[in-house]
Amino acid sequence: MRDRSEDGRLAEIAANLERVEARVQAACLSAGRGRAEVTVVVVTKTFPVEDVVRLHELGIRDVGENRDGDAAAKVAAVRSAGLTDLRWHFVGQVQRNKATSVATYADVVHSVDRVRLVSALSRGAVAAGRLVDCLVQVDLRDLPVDDGRGGASPADVLSVAAAIDAAEHLTLGGVMTVAPVSGDPSRAFLRLAEIASQLRTTYGRAAVISAGMSDDLEAAVAAGATHLRVGTALLGSRPALG
Ligand SMILES: *Cc1c(COP(=O)(O)O)cnc(C)c1O
Prior knowledge:
The protein is an alpha/beta fold. 43% of the residues lie in helices and 16% in strands. The protein has an 8-stranded parallel sheet. It is globular. The mean pLDDT is 95. Pyridoxal-5'-phosphate (PLP) binds next to β8 and α9.
């Protein structure tokens, strides 16, 4: 058994969790929202399986990954360590040839941005005998650029949503966005909230609004986000990807 008091990394993550929790609580308070309305998904990409185990020890049950190769191996390792009550969120761009794989372990896919992806995810979910909740990722930049961050244009959200809703073993959970790199994130988050409420007039249960990361979670909570995707503020900075 690892000695808890000697695990400096556990203490570091616990301190970060306290700081992020204080931020989320303050943001909920000033938005007049209940803390229970907001789920923090801890984005563990590039961090080792041991950190996922530490997060679990600290009470975290929602974790996110963004690359299929890393995620599949990490989920398998965490499960064989006996931790089976985590919800795995896939937050990165899904390549169509990886969609079947993603559907075998992800509980929620935040990044569904085209109809062609839906049939591949559905096939994977059916083959694995699982239900996968899907969010439509929306690109809210003024001038869409193909930089690999993905997202459907606002005009395409309804068609992607309808495809998810009609697909076997997929459920339509709601919407997601990544705020533009520059500019005021609130603008994008408020626009996402508008799109979410339009979607709910047709799909009443699609209530998830996934928005906000380490640097802009307050703006996301203020705009009605139900899920925050937080990496750096909890686990530290990631090595630059080559
Ligand atoms: C990495 C990542 C995050 C977490 O970002 P931080 O700034 O480290 O909190 C959130 N969402 C997506 C889609 C990501 O890829």
